[in-house]
Design goal:
- This protein is α+β, with helices and mostly antiparallel strands and 326 residues long.
- It folds into two domains: 238 residues, BirA Bifunctional Protein, domain 2 (2-Layer Sandwich), CATH 3.30.930; 81 residues, CO dehydrogenase flavoprotein, C-terminal domain (Enolase-like, domain 1).
- The chain is 30% helix and 27% strand.
- The strands form three sheets. It has an eight-stranded mixed sheet with strand order 7-8-9-10-6-2-1-12, with helices on both faces. Strands 11-13-14-15 form a four-stranded antiparallel sheet, covered by helices on one side.
- A hairpin with a 2-residue loop joins strand 14 and strand 15.
- Helix 9 runs antiparallel to helix 10.
- It is elongated, with a radius of gyration of 22 Å.
Length: 326
């Protein structure tokens, strides 16, 4: 088994590294990594339906989509992520308990009792410390999990807080759990890097023949290309979302406005604006401009700034309107 640790906290690089190892290496791999201020959504989720867009934008939180399914998670430098990429027999690849057991063993060595809970979680005293997901490729499985070591819980809560009434779709919805940090249960103080090193040492002892591996220049070139071509793109992180319907009602100084959007592939296919608001021009012009446009702030602004927007919706600017439809 190749055991990898590195210092990159770029979420798009780290997710690309997982896919690169899965597709281009033939042996078993283990990797420990961290992301800085990032929401990572599951492959089958509606990104905008999982994140608090205003808070994410104001806090400079990055958004990334992973290969595996499951729910959205918040990562910061107090969160440690682990990845197993293993070969196996078809039909016997998915095994959440197998890949979380080493973490339970490390915590036991620290006098912490952790338990496997539900389908894919680790808990301490009933509170979640780890969520896990898997992705199968041919006869290889990618298993990755989060480990809340010393994360900022307030940011975690705010970043993933979204109005459930805004978005209606068949996308996988996240299930919020009570969470806790591992550090709060330690008898002796340590930091996340020391904890990472303990896990690495345990894995190298547990798996005979395990060796440390550093990405070569060729590896890095390929990973960065995959990052730039896929993982950093709007098309993957937002456009890949399943079809969804967005509805929002809000008051302006000129009355009530109700907005309905039908979005497919991240593109607004149908828009309807109704309500008792005052306007001097037909809102059908605004609807036409919205249709065929990404459900994305900059592109919407570029479209709506081409018209005298307050004539279509009085007492609200194009910028304010765009802020209401996220």
């Amino acid at each position: 088994m190749l055991c990898i640790t590195h210092d990159s906290t770029d979420p798009w690089f780290n997710l690309a590294a997982e896919e690169y190892l899965l597709h281009n290496f033939s042996g078993d791999c283990f990797m420990l990594w961290r992301n800085d201020n990032t929401i990572v959504v599951g492959k089958h989720q509606n990104t905008l339906g999982e994140i608090n867009m205003g808070y994410v934008r104001e806090s400079n939180i990055k958004v990334a989509r992973r290969l595996s399914g499951g729910g959205a998670v918040y990562h910061d430098l107090g969160n440690l992520n682990f990845t197993f990429i293993m070969n196996g027999s078809e039909g016997k690849l998915v095994d959440f308990k197998k890949y979380t057991q080493p973490v339970i063993e490390v915590l036991k060595n620290l006098s912490i009792v952790a338990e496997f809970s539900g389908k894919n979680n680790l808990t301490i005293n009933g509170k979640k410390i780890s969520g896990n997901a898997e992705h199968v490729y041919k006869k290889r499985v990618l298993h990755h999990g989060t480990l809340l070591f010393s994360s900022e819980m307030d940011k975690l809560s705010h970043a993933l807080k979204v109005n459930p009434l805004k978005y209606q779709s068949k996308a996988v919805k996240s299930i919020r759990s009570r969470v806790t940090n591992i550090k709060d249960h330690l008898k002796n103080d340590m930091d996340v890097i020391q904890f990472r090193n303990m896990i690495l040492e345990h894995i190298m002892t547990k798996y005979p023949g395990a060796v440390k591996y550093e990405f070569s220049n060729e590896d890095l070139i390929s990973i960065k290309k995959l990052r730039d071509d896929k993982y950093r793109t709007w098309e993957w992180n937002f456009g890949y979302s399943p079809k969804y319907e967005f509805e929002r009602s809000f008051m302006t100084g000129a009355g009530l406005v109700h907005v309905f959007l039908y979005v497919s592939g991240g593109i607004i296919c149908k828009a309807k604006i109704s309500g008792d608001h005052l306007n001097s021009r037909e809102t059908s012009i605004v609807e036409t401009l919205l249709e065929g446009t990404r459900h994305e702030e900059t592109e919407l602004y570029n479209k709506l700034e081409t018209i005298p927007f307050p004539k279509y919706l009085q007492n609200i600017s194009a910028t304010e309107f765009i802020g209401k439809i996220f």
